[in-house]
Amino acid sequence: MHCVRKVTEDLYWVGANDKRLNLFENIHPIPRGTSYNSYVLLDEKTVLFDTADWSVCRQFLDNIEYVLDGRKLDYMVINHMEPDHGASIEEILLRYPEVRVICTAKAADFMKQFGFAPENVETVKEGDVKSFGKHQITFVMAPMVHWPEVMVTFETTEGILFSADAFGSFGALDGKLFADEVDFDRDWIDDARRYYTNIVGKYGPQVQNLLKKASALDIRYICPLHGPVWRKDLEYFIDKYDKWSRYEPEKKGVMICYASMYGNTENAANVLASLLCERGVTETALYDVSCTHVSYLIAEAFKYSHMAILSVTYNLGIFPVMKNFLEDMAALNLQKRSVALICNGSWAPQAGPQMAAAADKMKDTTKLSDVITIVSSLNDATYQQLEQLADTIADSLK
Ligand code: FEO
């Protein structure tokens, strides 16, 4: 049975949700599932904006059939070719053989790479315009947000931005299509941040380019490929994207993350957290990296201004899970953070210099002190160093 929502008078959401998938991109946990959004415009011509993941194709096809109500599908606009959206293109081509595909030249190349080549393709570039009756669209190129073929499509009649992966979020919709139908700041922002930072976070400058172009448009709706549609308070979410893509922290506070084998490094993390609280720094978040998926750690690292990173030494290096986190931060271009490093080791505490080298890979990062080295467990001297570090962090947060 169809399961659709009306976005505007002529536009329908025909996407679907997946709550069975454990790992998005086979790497990021999605305990709240995900939606794959797709939209159908009914005008003198009918237009489908993007398709959906193969896992939800049956629901997606039911939805399109219902909305078209016997009409043929005239156009399919492909903003993004990643298979979580592009996997059902071939099925649409088989069912609606007369459909004309509108996409970038790069997206047309990708279709061939993925094993199908539509006969009717119109490639478009920046600023091209297409009319379907009373609705007109224009194309805005968004390369590397977060794939090279990406464009976004702006419907000029009602101000609808089909934003591809930009402005997306993890989380199934559960019937609530619009961001104003949920408490987004309470229930969605963490997953939206985790989605952005892990999927698009590396491409901040490209997102900034897109935001700059978007600022010239009179956007009244944002229709992303994942998560809720925006029709109110657009500035709230645009502002988050602006901060995230400039790598500016959202909160002045301290993320304390530790890798501990037998509890002594964990003890140092707890001591530091307590010392910070005693100095009035309560905007803190403490994570054991061994039991927190790195996608959550990345999202928190983007959120906070300061980080205290504590790692035990393992095989004469950084504890593997912490090493992965440090490498992931650098890979995603996280920058502009104030960082404190604490290393532990019983006979060769060598993680410290390697942690310092890893932190150096993050642009514009300030080290709050020299690496503090604990030998097996805290003693009076290292406790005192943590007190000094807590003073430094508290001062720098003022
Ligand atoms: Fe949701 Fe880049 O695909």
Polypeptide structure, described:
- Helices cover 34% and strands 24% of the residues.
- It is an alpha/beta fold and 398 residues long.
- The protein has a 7-stranded mixed beta sheet with strand order 1-2-7-8-9-10-11.
- A hairpin with a 4-residue loop joins strand 14 and strand 15.
- Helix 9 crosses helix 13 and helix 10 packs across helix 11.
- The model has no long low-confidence stretch (mean pLDDT 98).
- MU-OXO-diiron binds next to helix 2.
Strand numbers in spatial order across the main sheet:
1-2-7-8-9-10-11
Question: Which structural class should the secondary elements be placed in?
Answer: alpha/beta
Bound molecules: MU-OXO-diiron
Q: What number is the mean pLDDT?
A: 98
* Silhouette: elongated
Helix content, binned percent? 25-40%
Major β-sheet annotation: 7 strands, mixed
Strand content: 15-25%
Number of strands: 23
Q: Give Rg in angstroms.
A: 24 Å
**End-to-end Cα distance:** 57 Å
Low-confidence sequence ranges = none
Q: Helix count?
A: 13
Describe the protein's topology.
Layout: E1 5-8, E2 11-13, E3 16-18, E4 23-24, E5 28-29, E6 34-36, E7 39-42, E8 46-49, H1 57-68, E9 75-77, H2 83-86, H3 89-95, E10 100-103, H4 105-113, E11 121-123, E12 129-131, E13 136-141, E14 151-155, E15 160-162, H5 184-187, H6 189-200, H7 204-214, E16 221-223, H8 234-245, E17 251-259, H9 264-278, E18 284-288, H10 294-303, E19 304-314, E20 317-318, H11 320-331, E21 338-345, H12 351-360, E22 366-367, E23 372-375, H13 380-396
Parallel strand pairs: 8-9, 9-10, 10-11, 15-16, 17-18, 17-19, 19-21, 21-22, 21-23
Antiparallel strand pairs: 1-2, 2-7, 3-6, 4-5, 7-8, 12-13, 13-14, 14-15, 19-20
Helix pairs in contact: 6-10, 7-8, 9-13, 10-11
Bound molecules: MU-OXO-diiron.
